[in-house]
Amino acid sequence: MSRDALTADRIVGAAIDLMDAEGLEGLNMRALGKRLDAAATAMYWHVTSKDNLIVLATDRVWSELPLPALDAADWRTTVTAMATDLHAMFTRHPWLVQVLAAHLVYGHGKARHDDHHLAVYETAGFTGDQADRAAAAVFTYVLGNAAGTAATAALTRRLARGATAQAQLHATIAKAQEIAKDYPRLRARLHTPAATQYAAAPDTTFESGLHALLNGLDHQRTG
Predict the structure, then answer these.
(1) Are 15 and 49 within 8 A, CB to CB?
(2) How far apart are CA 37 and CA 31, in angstroms?
(3) How many structural domains are present in the chain?
(4) What angle separates helix 205-222 from helix 75-92, to the nearest 10 degrees?
């Protein structure tokens, strides 16, 4: 494909697909060029650098998020919907967790979402500082929960490369379980999914934790 046949939009879309499949570590201009049937050097004409491409891809997926209507009387339902949608986005694109740990991200898609998130709290009666803290607390909670999904995606890619990685995983889990036998509360949980599956957690962990967090924020708002 000629340089003129490429567009920034196509390159960003292909980068998202590549990172969905290979993670952040799988993104390079050579692999991207192969997907687009173009020379690696042609990418730079449209996106200037790999770092800029990551910023563009991140903002593109942030634009996928819907913005629920503001409702002062039912702000918790709105926050829950936004947090759930954000968590689902991280699940669809687990490389985002890696990006947020290593890059400064910005753009209209993210700004649009963040502005609306703050508006939810302000509409509900949170003061400026309270709204800022509430938005940061919910975002950090969602991101922390998504870290397990990102870790599982990275591990799955690693295991797909061969039996050696799988054997190492099983050996590591076995060692961790052996150590857990020395601690009563861990020993009692050895046969739960959280103990037998990598990065697993009990069912409804995300929902119950978010509910508890919103209880605390509601108390601050009315206290």
Answers:
(1) no
(2) 10
(3) 2
(4) 140
Distance CA 213, CA 141 (A): 9
CB atoms < 10 A from the CB of 37, how many?
9
Q: State the Cα–Cα distance between residues 173 and 175, nearest whole angstrom.
A: 5
Nearest to 102 by CA among 15, 199, 24, 13: 24
Of 106, 113, 107, 105, give the one whose Cα is nearest residue 138.
Answer: 113
Spatial neighbors of 42 by CB under 8 A, at least 6 apart, are: 1, 2, 3, 6, 33
Give yes or no: residues 134 and 213 share one domain. Answer: yes
CB contact at 8 A, 47 and 95: no
Q: Which of 48-52, 125-129, 177-181, 201-205 has the lowest mean pLDDT?
A: 201-205
CATH for 93: 1.10.357.10
Structural domain containing residue 99: 72-161+192-222
- Residues 97, 129 within the same domain: yes
For 136-178, the pLDDT digits (tens) are 999 999 999 888 878 877 777 777 766 676 677 778 778 888 8
| pTM for the whole structure | 0.83
